[in-house]
């Protein structure tokens, strides 16, 4: 069975067909999906979605946070709102951490100071509540590593990782897993494929970042955007790059995600239909 550790089910691309999208994932044996919030105002919505569709995807969970691409329009009071929503969600077994948070030094019109303010404030919340974080690390790996070292953060996932081998080792040393998805299916993605092949198996998790980061075959097949149903096909290509069997890879990435997100592991342990032997 497959796991998607990063999927924006609340994206507008899914709004008119979300049940169809989720059932397609279910039919492809996707048993667990992580839905990260991107704005403080969306916290209630992602929580509702995780519960609404849990009968279809029993391991559907969520995290709460403010994405760096949304920081230009965020208000300082959003941190207070986020703090309150996190506190309220601690009793919810489908709440597993803080995210998507981070820094993005690729998009030019983002205010770097606002990004850093919201990122650091959210890391402080992660430390306060001792929760793992889902990180956005586009062209910002060193700055994020520096911020992490100043705090006692209980690990998490560096989503869509595309840094150097040395940076990867530093994230792993701080207790993080690295997310790989559709980008690795492109033959020209030499650095990502090298990382995928050479990094320790226990450092890797699978993701789609749906509806973004489409795999190589998507446009050829006339499909409009990425979907969680594709995580299995993506994972099989990742397994091929590593030179291991599909079932072995599926088991490894499932275990890696559960290890780094203990609240997710506890939820799945309570659900008999999420036994890895299924």
List keywords for this structure.
278 residues, alpha/beta, TIM Barrel, eight-stranded parallel sheet, globular
- Strand fraction band? 5-15%
Using only C-alpha atoms, the radius of gyration works out to 17 Å
- Give the count of structural domains: 1
Strand order of the largest sheet: 1-2-3-4-5-6-7-8
Shape: globular
CATH class descriptor: Alpha Beta
The SS-based structural class is alpha/beta
Q: What is the mean predicted local confidence, pLDDT?
A: 96
CATH architecture: Alpha-Beta Barrel
CATH overall fold name: TIM Barrel
Q: Termini distance?
A: 7 Å
Low-pLDDT stretches:
none
Tally the helices: what do you get?
10
What would you give as the CATH superfamily? Metal-dependent hydrolases
The major beta sheet can be summarized as: 8 strands, parallel
Report on this structure.
This protein has 278 residues and is an alpha/beta fold. It has a single domain (2-274), classed as Alpha-Beta Barrel (TIM Barrel), CATH 3.20.20.140. 41% of the residues lie in helices and 14% in strands. It contains ten helices and eight strands. The chain has helices at 18-27, 43-52, 77-89, 112-129, 141-149, 165-173, 190-198, 231-242, 246-260, 262-269, and strands at residues 2-4, 30-36, 59-64, 95-102, 133-136, 156-159, 176-180, 204-206. Strands 1-2-3-4-5-6-7-8 form an eight-stranded parallel sheet, sandwiched between helices. Helix 8 crosses helix 9 and helix 9 (246-260) crosses helix 10 (262-269). The longest helix has 18 residues, at 112-129. The protein is globular. The termini are close together. 47% of the residues are buried.
